């Protein structure tokens, strides 16, 4: 089933206070474009329309812009991606983190081993992303910081092994992510500056890790990846009314309520945890196999305002 238009679109808006920013900073979150041959210009028009309405100071791309890293071999797909990236850059400074689909070929059958899984990882993919981001004026964050108007954004690279949960399993490797965060802390990469607001951006939500001491100084955590939970938007409304965040299940992940899939929640330390549902449906149909279960999801661009 292919829909010509998404049934509805939404722009959730959240305000994060007591961050230390001297003046309000408006951030727009988007991602999970999953650019493929079936992606039409409707996706770019939706993107431009929503971003122009928000008029953000900064745009954060939360990953999975390509549906497969082998899209780099298709000049038509590269051209589509560039048009989307340039649409963002013309509106506001734009930064990007890399998703699992941006670096690893989607696997429809559970991998038998780590080696089997990594066979699907594209070699030199970081160099390819650096090149295309440089051409379009996008700042690619690979375990590094970006600062604007008193706001410091750290973009963490969740490498291919972060998405290998074990032989025959789906999901993310919490152990691999925990190890990587500890390494960043030991290397002094995760340094905080007084009187600055700090934002942590990555692709897959790591709500189980947000209480790590290495991440204690962040005011905001933002992610994509879940698509908001792959069920119709009507089911989302019911789950939300019951106190949930998103649909019943996210791609290759845990069932509700064990996984935070969409929206905003306040962590025990007061930080905001935000998951953007993405806009894979804004192009008319999602890439296989997601269009079978994601067929009437709303495309989403999230607006976040930081202020004292």
User: Which spans have pLDDT < 50 for at least 5 consecutive residues?
Assistant: 1-8, 282-293
Instruction: Fill in the CATH topology.
Output: Purple Acid Phosphatase, chain A, domain 2
Number of strands: 14
Give the tally of structural domains: 1
Output the helix-strand order: EEEHEHEHHEEEHEEHEEEE
Q: How big is the Rg?
A: 18 Å
Helix vs. strand class: alpha/beta
| Total number of helices | 6
Strand order of the largest sheet: 2-14-3-4-5-6
CATH superfamily: Metallo-dependent phosphatases
* Overall pLDDT: 84
The helix content is: 10-25%
Second rung of CATH, namely the architecture: 4-Layer Sandwich
Distance between the termini: 47 Å
CATH class: Alpha Beta
Strand content: 15-25%
- What is the overall shape? globular
Biggest β-sheet: count, sense, barrel?
A: 6 strands, mixed
Fold and architecture overview:
The protein is an alpha/beta fold. The chain has a single domain (9-307), classed as Purple Acid Phosphatase, chain A, domain 2, CATH 3.60.21.10. Helix content is 22%, strand content 19%. The protein has six helices and 14 strands. Strands 2-14-3-4-5-6 form a six-stranded mixed beta sheet, with helices on one face. Strands 7-8-9-10-12-11 form a six-stranded mixed beta sheet, with no helix packed on it. A two-stranded parallel sheet has the order 1-13. Helix 1 (42-54) runs parallel beside helix 2. The longest helix is centred in the N-terminal third of the chain and has 15 residues, at 75-89. The model is unreliable at 1-8 and 282-293 (pLDDT under 50).
């Amino acid at each position: 089933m292919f829909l010509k238009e998404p049934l509805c679109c939404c722009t959730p808006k959240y305000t994060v206070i007591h961050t230390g920013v001297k003046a309000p900073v408006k951030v727009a979150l988007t991602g999970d474009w999953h650019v493929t041959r079936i992606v039409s210009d409707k996706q770019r028009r939706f993107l431009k329309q929503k971003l122009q309405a928000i008029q953000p100071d900064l745009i954060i791309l939360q990953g999975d812009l390509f549906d497969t890293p082998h899209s780099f071999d298709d000049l038509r797909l590269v051209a589509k991606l560039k048009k989307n990236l340039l649409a963002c850059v013309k509106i506001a400074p734009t930064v990007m983190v890399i998703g699992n689909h941006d670096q690893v070929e989607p696997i429809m059958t559970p991998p038998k081993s780590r080696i089997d899984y990594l066979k699907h990882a594209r070699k030199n993919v970081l160099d390819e992303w650096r090149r295309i981001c440089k051409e379009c004026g996008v700042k690619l964050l690979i375990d590094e910081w970006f600062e604007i108007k008193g706001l410091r954004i750290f973009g963490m690279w969740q490498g291919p092994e972060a998405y290998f949960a074990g032989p025959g399993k789906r999901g993310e490797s919490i152990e691999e992510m925990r190890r990587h965060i500890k390494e960043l802390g030991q290397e002094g990469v995760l340094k905080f500056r007084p009187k600055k607001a700090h934002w942590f951006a990555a692709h897959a939500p790591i709500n189980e890790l947000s209480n790590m001491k290495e991440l204690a100084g962040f005011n905001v955590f933002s992610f994509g990846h879940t698509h908001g939970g792959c069920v119709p938007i009507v089911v989302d409304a019911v789950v939300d009314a019951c106190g949930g965040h998103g649909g019943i299940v996210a791609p290759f992940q845990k069932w509700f309520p064990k996984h935070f899939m969409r929206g905003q929640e306040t962590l025990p330390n007061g930080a905001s945890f935000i998951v953007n549902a993405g806009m894979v449906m804004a192009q008319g149909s999602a890439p296989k196999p997601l269009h079978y279960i994601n067929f009437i999801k709303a495309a989403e661009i999230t607006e976040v305002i930081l202020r004292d």
